[in-house]
Amino acid sequence: MTTPVGQSAGPCPDENECSVCNKEVGNKEKALNCDICNRWIHIECGKVNQSTYSTLKKLNTSCQGMKWLCEKCEKCFGKI
Ligand SMILES: [Zn+2]
Ligand SMILES: [Zn+2]
Q1: Ligand 2 centre from 30 Cα, in Å?
Q2: How far is the CA of 68 from the centre of ligand 1 (A)?
Q3: Domain range for 60
Q4: Were both Cys, which of 4, 40, 46, 65 would link to 25 (CB 3.0–4.6 Å)?
Q5: Total tally of structural domains belonging to the chain
């Protein structure tokens, strides 16, 4: 088991802030939740293309849960 290093509990875990631009992620905005750090990232900020986003959304609604890593986590963990 590997424990994520340097994971700090934010002051407000419910706050949906994009970890890249630090702006709030609204309900209508397209964003993904990183599976490792649990932060939201706008698809534009995470350089996620539309088709990847819709694929992940589909997975998510079929209660697979979505596995998506933000850029930072992907760098740390590489391709799993
Ligand atoms: Zn953003
Ligand atoms: Zn992450």
Answers
A1: 16
A2: 16
A3: 31-77
A4: 40
A5: 1
Q: CA dist 2 to 5, 23, 67, 73, Å?
A: 9, 30, 17, 13
Specify if 52 maps to a domain: yes
The ligand that comes nearest to the alpha carbon of residue 71 is 2
DSSP 34-77: -TTT--EEETTTTT--HHHHHHHHHHHHTTS------HHHHHHH
Does this model's pTM top 0.85? My answer is no
Q: How far is the CA of 48 from the centre of ligand 1 (A)?
A: 11
3-class secondary structure for 29-45? CCEEECCCCCCEEECCC
Residue 73 in domain: yes
- Closest ligand relative to 75 C-alpha: 2
Span from the CA of 12 to the centroid of ligand 1 (angstroms): 18
